[in-house]
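Propose amino acids for all 392 sites.
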C-alpha cells in the first residue's frame, strides 16, 4: 500500500495481516504478553529484534492504529498513547531537557497549559505564551534556549487559526521542534507536516473515535523524535489499550464521511449564528470574519465541526441558553455524532484566571458547539428556540 492511495482508501485498507482464520474485519488481540518459541528468541526480542513482546511495548492492534495514523498524517513514524494528554505530556517530557524554553499560544487546551505551567517548571523548563495572531511576538519570544513551539490550530475553544507556514519556517530557522495538536482538524482536513510541523499530536478521543466511546491519543512525526517518545511511553506506561486501539482503527475507516457531514452542518450553523441578532460574534475558521481566513482556507480543506459564538447577555444568558436546549447534550467532550454545547468559561477552561480567560478570548458569553451528525434543521431549531427562550 503506497502513498498514491487516497485518504479514504488508506483509512480503510491499512490493516494487519490476516490470521489463519481468514477474518475480514480486524481481530482484537486481548493479551498482555506474547510467547517465545525458544530461549534464544526471547533473548533476541529483548535485545530489540522486531516482534511483539508485551502490550505495554507493542500489540498488533496498537501497531495497526499507529501505522494508519502515520500514513494519514503523511508522517515518517508514529505511536499511539492512552489518551490525548498522554500524547501531549509525553511529547514534552520525552523531548525537553532541564533549562529548555517552550513557546506556546495563549489559546490552548486547559490541561496542556496546566502541564506547561505546573509540571515543566519542576524540571526548570519555562514557557512563554503568545497571542495567536501576532506574528512579531512569536519571533521575539524565541531565545537561545527555545527547544519547542507547541500550538493548536484551530485552537480550543475559540477556534483561532495559526499560520503554520510562518511558524514552521520560524522553527526551522532557529532549530526548534514545531509541534502541532491537530485534534480539531484531524488529518482529513489538515496535515500539519505539509506546513512544516515536526510532530503532530492527537487526542483520538474526539473525531477519530467520533462516537464518544474511548480515550486514546497519538504522536506522529520525524523518526528520531517519535523514537524518543516511544521509549518514554514504553518505560513509563501510558500505553493504549488494545481494545481502544481496535475501536479507534475501525473509527478511522469512517473519518472522511463523518467529517464531511460535521463540516457541512457546522458551516450552516456558523452562517445562521453570524446573521442572528442575539449573537455578538461567531467564530468559525472558514467564515470571512476570521482574521486569518486566507490562512485557514489554505491550511484546512473544510472549516471543521466546531463553532463558537458570543451570546448577548454574558454568563447569565449563557447558562439560561444551555438550560433551554432540548436536544443538545451538555458535556465537555467534542467530536461526537451527537451535538454538544459547552460553556468553556465555567467548565473546560474554568481553572484559568479571569485575565487568562480574557486573553484567550474566552468571554463570559462564549459558547462552543460541537456540531453533530443529526439533521441540520433539528440542530438549528434547537439552538434557535434556546436563544429565544433565554432572552431576558
Ligand atoms: C481533548 C483534547 C486533548 C486531550 O485529550 P484526551 O484524550 O482527553 O486526553 C488535547 N488537546 C485538545 C485540543 C483536546 O481537545
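Proposal:
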Amino acid at each position: 500500500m503506497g502513498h498514491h492511495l487516497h485518504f479514504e482508501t488508506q483509512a480503510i485498507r491499512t490493516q494487519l495481516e490476516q490470521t489463519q482464520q481468514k477474518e475480514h474485519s480486524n481481530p482484537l488481540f486481548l493479551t498482555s504478553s506474547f510467547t517465545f518459541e525458544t530461549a534464544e528468541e526471547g533473548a533476541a526480542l529483548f535485545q530489540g529484534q522486531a516482534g511483539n513482546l508485551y502490550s505495554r511495548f507493542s500489540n498488533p492492534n496498537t501497531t495497526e492504529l499507529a501505522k494508519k495514523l502515520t500514513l494519514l498524517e503523511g508522517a515518517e513514524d508514529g505511536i499511539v498513547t492512552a489518551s490525548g494528554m498522554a500524547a501531549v505530556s509525553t511529547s514534552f517530557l520525552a523531548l525537553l531537557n532541564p533549562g529548555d524554553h517552550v513557546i506556546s499560544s495563549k489559546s490552548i487546551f486547559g490541561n496542556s497549559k496546566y502541564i506547561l505551567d505546573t509540571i515543566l517548571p519542576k524540571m526548570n523548563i519555562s514557557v512563554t505564551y503568545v497571542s495567536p495572531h501576532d506574528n512579531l511576538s512569536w519571533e521575539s519570544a524565541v531565545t537561545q534556549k527555545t527547544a519547542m513551539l507547541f500550538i493548536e490550530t484551530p485552537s480550543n475553544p475559540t477556534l483561532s487559526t495559526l499560520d503554520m507556514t510562518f511558524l514552521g519556517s520560524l522553527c526551522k530557522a532557529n532549530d526548534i521542534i514545531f509541534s502541532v495538536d491537530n485534534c480539531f482538524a484531524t488529518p482529513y482536513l489538515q496535515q500539519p507536516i505539509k506546513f512544516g510541523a515536526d510532530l503532530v499530536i492527537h487526542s483520538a478521543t474526539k473525531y477519530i473515535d467520533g462516537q464518544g466511546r474511548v480515550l486514546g491519543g497519538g504522536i506522529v512525526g520525524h523518526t528520531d523524535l517519535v523514537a524518543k517518545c516511544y521509549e518514554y511511553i514504553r518505560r513509563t506506561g501510558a500505553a493504549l489499550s488494545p481494545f481502544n486501539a481496535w475501536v479507534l482503527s475501525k473509527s478511522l475507516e469512517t473519518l472522511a464521511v463523518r467529517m464531511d457531514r460535521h463540516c457541512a452542518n457546522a458551516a450552516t450553523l456558523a452562517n445562521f449564528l453570524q446573521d442572528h441578532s442575539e449573537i455578538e460574534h461567531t467564530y468559525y475558521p472558514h467564515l470571512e470574519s476570521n482574521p486569518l481566513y486566507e490562512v485557514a482556507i489554505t491550511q484546512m480543506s473544510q472549516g471543521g465541526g466546531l463553532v463558537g459564538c458570543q451570546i448577548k447577555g454574558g454568563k447569565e444568558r449563557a447558562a439560561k441558553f444551555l438550560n433551554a436546549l432540548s436536544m443538545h447534550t451538555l458535556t465537555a467532550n467534542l467530536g461526537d455524532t451527537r451535538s454538544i454545547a459547552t460553556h468553556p468559561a465555567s467548565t473546560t477552561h474554568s481553572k484559568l484566571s479571569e485575565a487568562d480567560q480574557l486573553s484567550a478570548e474566552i468571554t463570559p458569553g462564549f459558547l462552543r458547539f460541537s456540531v453533530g451528525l443529526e439533521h441540520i434543521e433539528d440542530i438549528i431549531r434547537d439552538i434557535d428556540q434556546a436563544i429565544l427562550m433565554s432572552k431576558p
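DSSP finds 15 helices and twelve strands in the chain. The domain at 255-389 is CATH 3.90.1150.10 (Aspartate Aminotransferase, domain 1).
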